[in-house]
Write a structure and sequence with these properties.
Elements (H helix, E strand, L loop, with lengths): L4 E3 L2 E4 L5 E6 L10 E11 L7 E7 L2 E9 L2 E5 L4 E4 L4 E5 L4 E7 L5 E10 L10 E5 L4 E4 L2 E7 L1 E2 L2 E2 L8 E7 L4 E6 L5 E8 L2 E3 L2 E3 L4 E5 L4 E6 L4 E7 L7 E3 L2 E3 L2 H12 L28
The protein binds manganese (II) ion.
Length: about 290
């Protein structure tokens, strides 16, 4: 069990001027277990006529994991799913061999607060059939004055419904009044903790909003002190064995995996299907970051 590593967010544009804070991947820490990507959107109230509108884009070899805190977002994908996600719910899209989707505020001019994470699929499952699951109800309980929601994995006799492929956990912790609680950890898991709102103190260090603390492995317990009105995200998982490559919306285990996906998306290959009537704006992949493309 080592000291806490503090990781600062950077700003990223999802397109259409929608800014989010991204903490994973990061130079200091690429992943936490199989969690390989963490974007934090909002809390924000959009101007009239504005909202989140992320055009059609592909994914491979990962699961997108959306945790909605405020607002309503419409997900549409190339399997024909159309699902509105509301506060307290999770959407899990398994890209596997390939899928495309869009994400839009249901109505413009309203509030949005969400975390979107990606989970890398293990190498032997990277090409599984794509799927989409919506989880309207999750295990919830109270501890030390805070309300906890199990987003993914298992915690103390509870199991979240999300269909995942690696040992991992995700917990949302929120309080109105200052709260102190002790969480039981799996010593074989590495963990990360990030306030989505407010401040949390652990090991005599205080994390501000959007500061991710990487906690490593070997911990059995975690004592947290949340300031009033704080919301914290705890992520954990068994350290991921394989080196993961990430580029744009693709995860892969070789440059060839990613170059192939990029070429397939550019030429409109059936691999990524069609969303609805096919008229959704398609996002364009940036050039690959290396020269030997195969
Ligand atoms: Mn996406």
């Amino acid at each position: 069990m080592g000291p806490i590593v503090r990781i600062q967010p950077r700003s990223a544009d999802l397109g259409d001027g929608m800014l989010v804070r991204r903490t994973l991947p990061n130079r200091q820490q690429r992943m936490i277990g199989a969690w390989c990507f963490l974007d934090h959107a909002g809390p924000v109230r959009f101007e009239p006529g504005k909202g989140m509108h992320v055009g059609a884009h592909p994914h491979i070899a990962l699961q997108t994991f959306t945790w909605l805190i405020e607002g309503e977002v419409l997900h549409r994908d190339s399997l024909g799913n159309e699902q509105v996600i509301r506060p307290g719910q999770v959407n899990l899209m398994t890209a596997g061999f390939g899928i495309a989707h869009t994400e839009d505020s249901l109505r413009d001019g309203e509030r949005l607060h969400a975390a979107q994470l990606w989970i890398a699929l293990p190498p032997d499952r990277k090409d599984i059939a794509p799927a989409f699951d919506h989880y309207p109800e999750l295990p919830q309980w109270r501890e030390g004055g805070a309300a906890l929601t199990l987003l993914a994995g298992r915690y103390a006799q509870r199991t979240a419904p999300a269909r995942i492929h690696s040992p991992l956990v995700g917990i949302d912790i929120v309080c109105d009044d200052p709260s102190t609680l002790t969480l039981e950890l799996e010593p074989g898991f590495e963990y990360g903790l990030m306030p989505l709102v407010g401040e949390v103190t652990l090991d005599e260090e205080t994390l501000r909003t959007d500061e991710l603390a990487y906690l490593g492995t070997g911990r059995r317990q975690l004592l947290l002190s949340l300031a009033a009105g704080t919301r914290v995200l705890l992520l954990g998982g068994e350290p991921f064995d394989e080196a993961v490559l990430m580029w744009w919306n693709f995860v892969g285990f070789s440059k060839a995996d990613i170059a192939q996906a990029q070429a397939d998306w550019e030429r409109g290959d059936a691999r990524f299907g069609t969303i609805g009537d096919g008229k959704a704006q398609r996002l364009v992949a940036p050039p690959l970051p290396w020269h030997d493309q195969r």
